UniProtKB/TrEMBL annotation:
Keywords: RNA-binding
PROSITE patterns xref list: RNASE_3_1, RNASE_3_2
Residue ranges, compositional bias (Basic and acidic residues): 291-302
This protein's name: RNase III domain-containing protein
GO cellular component, one term: nucleoplasm
Record-linked CDD domains: RIBOc
Domain of life: Eukaryota
Molecular function as annotated in GO: ribonuclease III activity; RNA binding
GO biological process, any: U4 snRNA 3'-end processing
Domain RNase III: 51-162
Gene3D superfamilies membership: 3.30.160.20, Ribonuclease III domain (1.10.1520.10)
Region Disordered, annotated ranges: 1-43, 291-339
Length: 339
């Protein structure tokens, strides 16, 4: 009779009687296991040691004088394990995510709305002592209690066997997989180097690209994330503060990348690029003309110098030659001419 009462109390949890108990396995005598998923699509619920059973399902108000007798301490430990396992899953699964986006996804996996739902699906909330009393609490209070029970259960899984940490990790990763997969398939890949591409296409000396906050960032409280809104504008040629595109993202940098990606799709950017090509051609032509003019000036200057120097030399040479060939000068002595 006592065994039946215990079975009814624990719901789907049953003593492990099918396997032989080994004396060198102190954990095997104390485990309670579920015989399968409580709900379709849920992974198998790991067992916990009997010594933690009452603790996991005892609200702190039911043991105010003994912190070891309620789930309060286990909930504290389980919360840390949930954060750790969620962080590891996201870090390995999404190598291109920025920290802000990783924090956002982690918050989705570990928040009370998520783990409280898991507690209900597995029926853990109904295992709580006097659960109907707490079920009639305000919605947010009852949600927090269900989340605490789930966190305490996670801690109990970790503590119930030598490989409890690995068991809990595998279980939670499998449990979170649908949510993670949804993010993986719905997340727009973050564009890379779009700012560099846009600059290469339309930027040159005398032009400028500006990335401007179009409105203040939106903080999504309780979700651990912010959202930024950035527009990209162009100044140059015949355009002044010309709008090219907008973007939004979990950081200002990411929003700017999305804005540049949108700008690259704008036909106006192709028109600006053509103007850039024309301007570069004119600049090159002008540079060549200046270069050619400079060479011509140098040539003309050299010729002018030659014309100035050469006549003087020739004159001096001719004077020397004439002096050498001239007859002796006539000298006057008195009234006679001496030759």
């Amino acid at each position: 009779m006592a065994g039946s009462d215990k079975k009814r109390k624990h719901g789907d949890f049953h003593p492990q009687s099918a396997k032989k108990v080994h004396r060198d396995d102190p954990y095997s005598r104390k485990h309670h296991r579920s015989e399968g998923p409580v709900s379709d699509g849920l992974p198998h619920l790991p067992s916990i040691s009997e010594e933690y059973w009452n603790i996991v399902f005892t609200h702190p108000s039911q043991a105010p004088q003994d912190p070891q007798a309620s789930y309060d301490r286990l909930e504290f430990l389980g919360d840390a394990y949930l954060e750790l396992y969620a962080t590891q899953l996201i870090f390995n699964r999404f190598p291109d995510f920025e920290v802000g986006k990783m924090s956002q996804l982690r918050e989705t996996l570990v928040r009370n709305e998520t783990i409280g739902q898991y507690a209900s699906l597995y029926g853990l909330d109904k295992q709580l002592k006097n659960y109907k009393q707490f079920q009639n609490s305000p919605g947010h209070v009852w949600l927090k209690i269900k989340g605490d029970v789930f966190e305490a259960y996670v801690a109990a899984v970790v503590l119930s066997s030598p490989d409890g940490a690995d068991t809990a990790k595998r279980w939670l990763h499998e449990l979170w997989e649908p949510k993670v997969q949804a993010v993986a398939t719905s997340t727009t890949p973050k564009p890379k180097k779009t700012k560099e591409e846009l600059a290469k296409k339309i930027l040159m000396k005398g032009t400028k690209i500006n990335y401007v906050d179009e409105k203040a960032p939106v903080v999504h409280y309780g979700q651990g994330r912010e959202e930024y809104f950035v527009g990209v504008y162009f100044n140059g040629f015949a355009w002044e503060n010309q709008y090219l595109g907008s973007g939004r993202g979990s950081s200002r940098v990411e929003a700017g990348l999305f804005a540049a990606a949108e700008a690259l799709k704008n036909p106006l950017v192709d028109q600006i690029a053509r103007e850039k090509t024309k301007a570069l051609a004119r600049r090159e032509k002008y540079a060549e003309a200046v270069k050619d003019k400079g060479v011509q000036k140098e040539h003309d200057f050299g010729r002018a110098n030659a014309e100035v120097v050469e006549p003087a030399s020739v004159t001096e040479s001719r004077e020397s030659q004439a002096s050498a060939e001239a007859p002796p000068a006539k000298q006057l002595q008195g009234s006679h001419v001496v030759v």
